[in-house]
Amino acid sequence: MKTAVRRSMGGAVLVCFLVGFLT
User: Fold this and answer.
1) Rounded to whole angstroms, how far apart are CA atoms 15 and 1?
2) What is the pLDDT of residues 1-23, one digit of tens each?
């Protein structure tokens, strides 16, 4: 359960980082 949460958070952070980098 914890791993899934961390994975989701990591994915969200990664997406935000990519979006901020591209824009």
Assistant:
1) 21
2) 677 777 778 888 888 898 998 88
pTM of the model: 0.43
Written as six digits, the tokens of 23 are 């824009």
Instruction: Write the DSSP string, 1-23.
Output: -HHHHHHHHHHHHHHHHHHHHH-
CA separation, residue 8 to residues 4, 5, 19 (Å)? 6, 5, 16
